[in-house]
Design goal:
Blueprint (H helix, E strand, L loop, with lengths): L1 H28 L12 E4 L9 H12 L5 E5 L10 E2 L6 H4 L1 H9 L4 E4 L3 H8 L5 E5 L1
Parallel strand pairs: 1-5, 2-4, 2-5
Antiparallel strand pairs: 3-4
Length: 138
Amino acid sequence: MLINYLRLLLLPFSLVYGLAIILRKKLYDWGIMRSVKFDLPVICVGNLAVGGSGKTPVTEYLVRLLGGNYKVAILSRGYGRKTKGFVLADSVASAENIGDEPLQYYNKFKDVTVAVCEDRVAGIEKLKDNHDLSTQSR
């Protein structure tokens, strides 16, 4: 019973959200918002959910699936890090400077390049020349 009232209360927000998504798609169609293409395949793992939606296990699965045949890079925004810009994970990397998930990837997959950058396009630009494939965790 309470859930029905809650649905009615939230209905206007869902309509506004739906209109915003339609407008965003149209802005891409009209060329107002830009879309960037790269010469290498980019697999984007992410969605609008904040946490607990399975992005990390999917990224790890893709690395295991493709890592033996391709030079793979993982690019993350590095949620929770205290640094800015493009940072390549290395032996002195910590959760503070690259984030906890990228650090987990770096420790788990020694043959995979792990980097963080809040600007996805800039990050892929820095990685694309030395890799066959980039997975991007949002």
